Amino acid sequence: MALTLYYHPFSSYCWKVLIPLYEAGTPFEGRLLDEPEAAAELKRLWPIARFPVLVDDGGAGMLPEASIIVEYLDQHYPGPAPMLPADADLRLEVRLLDRLFDNYIHASVQKIVFDRLRDPARRDIQGVEEARAMLDTAYAWLDARMAGRRWAAGDAFTLADCAAAPALFYADWVHPIGADHPNVAAYRARLLARPAVARAVDGGRPYRATFPGGGPARD
Length: 219
Ligand SMILES: N[C@@H](CCC(=O)N[C@@H](CS)C(=O)NCC(=O)O)C(=O)O
Description:
The chain is α+β, with helices and mostly antiparallel strands. It has 8 helices and 4 strands, in the order βαβαββαααααα. Strands 2-1-3-4 form a 4-stranded mixed beta sheet, with helices on both faces.
């Protein structure tokens, strides 16, 4: 098997890569980071130790960073539909949306979740308030953007939607999207109904009890 993915089935950034792998039906060997041996291998391969990390023995070797992995898969293991569109302007829009989902929604979710893992005496109250304010701003912006749209950029499902799915999945858990953002809520529901996304979400179900602070009994 050429592709090995170091991942965890409950990890949001890993879903971002699992989604296009499932969309394309690309085979890979999974190294579950629950296993200490796999976690140690990951640290040797990529000392930053954030995951997912992809290893392609016959190709690029080790690749970290979900967006880069998705783009690599698109180039070297293409599925029936590209995650990065051929048109240069549309591709730029997809990359921009990918950055917005990662930097302002996903990062805010991580700030809130990681804070729950801290010693209560060392919690970052201001940082969490800022993350929640950023999510409110991002929801309002995205709600206007998604009016009349099916997917985040263009007519097709792309890298931008791979970024949106895990970000919005967990964002709604820690900072509910609410009825005042109906287009974001409908977009999240559309994402979760997509078979590749549902498969990634299902993979994480056995781990739900471990969600810091507890997760809601839905989705
Ligand atoms: N910028 C990275 C972020 C990856 C990331 O934050 N992954 C989380 C799991 S969802 C992680 O590695 N968490 C472990 C940690 O923070 O130690 C990417 O796009 O792949």
